[in-house]
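PROTEIN SPECIFICATION:
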Amino acid sequence: MLKILLMILIFGVIFAGEIPQLVRKGEMKELVVFSLLALIGLALSILMVVRSFI
C-alpha cells in the first residue's frame, strides 16, 4: 500500500511541476497529451506494484 501511495505522490509532483507551465504557455493540446500519457503511466505503474504482490 505504501508503494502505491509513493507512486501517486511521485506522479503528483511531476503533474504539479509541468501542468502550470503548459497552462501558462497556452499549450492545451500538449497538456491533454501529457495528461493522458502520465495517467497511462501511473495506471501501469500501479498495476506493476499490485502484480508484484501476487
Q: What stands out?
A: Residues 15 and 27 are 15 Å apart (CA to CA).
